[in-house]
Amino acid sequence: MINFSHLQLKQSTLNELKKLQINFVFQPIYDLETEEIIAYEALMRPDGETPLELIDRYEANHQLHIIELATFFGATMAYYERGYQEKLCVNSFPSEVFRPEEAKVYFDYFPNDVNKRLVVEMLEYPRFSPLNWHLKQMQIKKKGIEVALDDFGTGYNDYSSLSLIDPDYIKIDRCMISDININPKKQEVFSKIINMARSLNIKVLAEGVETKEEYNYLRTSGAGLAQGYYLGRPA
Question: Is-contact 76 145, C-beta < 8 A?
């Protein structure tokens, strides 16, 4: 389990973080052209409940900020402990932003190159907060950190979010990738997304690739990146 007690955060924050019993697993992200791993997505694994159950419980108590802190600090600690050299993708709530003192602790604690490795994945839930995103965006851009729009096409992560978030990557949700090799309608929609992304200089990542046939189709479709059980399970 991740230990947060040594972090130089407020004692009240540390007390809340200590209540969390969580670990992280990492799923590889592949470059479809080189077939090499270029990043790992950190995925939280709470003890005794699912990630969504944990999020729902904390959201009901207006404590999503604690989960945001636990995700960034915990995932990054686990990433460096494993000795990864590829980029690190960390999920982030669009409604939450680090306080200035928390951001300072984060960037002081980890190596100087953490900003070059980090990709902040904006989740499709909970509701988008324009003010908090503006504050988060200022923190991110100041450090040169990349941004990904997670599960594009679901929740609040749709075309209208592109102008607000201005992502470096969009991650196409599995609902569009499943059986794409035999579904002409999905192929047509996917092609339109690829063309749109190219015009905006956004990289496209296909999520939830689970079969060889899906993978082979995506390699010729213009998608640059992919992840899913066919390529590697979270571990």
Answer: no
